Amino acid sequence: MKLLFPHIYERYLAKQIYVAFGFILFALVALFLFFDILSELGSVQGSYTLPLALLHVLLKAPGRISEIIPIAGLIGSIYVFAMMASQSEFTILRIAGLDVKRGLIALTKISIPLIVLTLVMSEWAGPYAENKSEQIRMKALGATYSSQFKTGVWVKDRLRDEDGSGPVRPGVRYVNVGNVDKDNEIRNIRMYEFNDTYNLLSIRSAPSGHFDEGGIWVLNDVTETRFKEIKQSDPLNPVFSAQTFTHPILTLESEVTPQILNVLLISPEKMSIVSLGRFIAHLQENKQDAKRHAIAFWKKVIYPLTIFVMLALALPFAYLKVRAGSVGIKVFGGIMLGMSFQLFNSLFSNVGLLSAWPALLTALIPPMFYFFLALVALRWVSKA
62: Cβ–Cβ under 8 A, 6 or more apart, which residues? Predict the structure, then answer.
């Protein structure tokens, strides 16, 4: 702590902000979990008992924490700075030499542990706990992951030999999966393979399958129909032959993994940076649109840095005089400011997606805009 905060005023500010941040984070997480529990009570039935429902909601806490940390940092720091202003503590620090530049440097150091906490919660603890939470719920209810489409999940894959193995060759394979069960099991699978001129080569269907440890899909009771063109003298009127085969078990090499299928069934905003990066690479390799996932990726990368922006937004409240309003009003203003940032950030993502703006620019503009507001406010209140 002393190495990170070598000055006395830095340690004092850090202590005050961390205490207020911890209290507000606990209160906000408890509030959100309470509403989650109320929402989950309607699903309690049969094997899905109340204790399992409570466990399911509690395991979502790390994900909630990662979402709430910036807002908790903003409200907590506004409270601390407002209290220091009301008790003239910040005035004493200014007289001792704490200017705007040094204040921002101190806030940068204070934000580092919060950034690390956000990364741990959003990239490791959150996804892991979320996965365990869904497994508990699925096992108790006997439910499966499903898609918003009635036909299931559609994904593009690379074409291989007729037996489903070997090197990648020109063409494309479209895979349709009805639903994804626990333990990497899939049901109602259909595959359509086309060559490089988009002539249909084969259709496969299977009621079930699973992904083995070797990275191979094992399909059960497969029905396969292969189409071949019969050479004719008239190229404008080709004739095709069809042969149908059945396979009790068929193994297929594919770049479509259970992780990719699960990615398709959840919103990009709830995925980790690593998962988003892998899925974006898969989409780009198959020449598919990855704008939405790219925006979500850069938002996840930049999101921890918004903690510093929130702390910078709180710093002008330390310069306000006591007559400018009570502490409660300032905290309420901080809550409104944090909500406006979340709304603006979400709105800008949709605008950037519709306008085909670069993903990095779309994710970067909202926090940069609010940081600019913080600098303008600091310049104004420091001269008042």
Answer: 121, 125, 126, 128, 129, 130
Averaged pLDDT for residues 279-283: 81
Instruction: Write out the residue range of the structural domain in which residue 308 sits.
Output: 8-142+287-383
Q: Quick check: 127 and 271 in contact, CB under 8 A?
A: yes
**379 and 317 Cβ atoms separated by less than 8 Å:** no
Q: What is the number of structural domains in the chain?
A: 2
- For residues 241 and 359, membership in a common domain is answered with no
Q: What is the pLDDT of residues 148-180, one digit of tens each?
A: 456 677 888 888 877 667 777 888 888 888 877
Q: What are phi and psi of 143, to 5 degrees?
A: -95, 175
Dist. CA 340–CA 335, nearest whole Å: 9
230 lies in a domain? yes
Number of C-beta neighbours around residue 300 at 10 A: 24
Which token pair is 299?
């938002």
| Helices and strands (DSSP H and E) totals, the chain | 12, 7
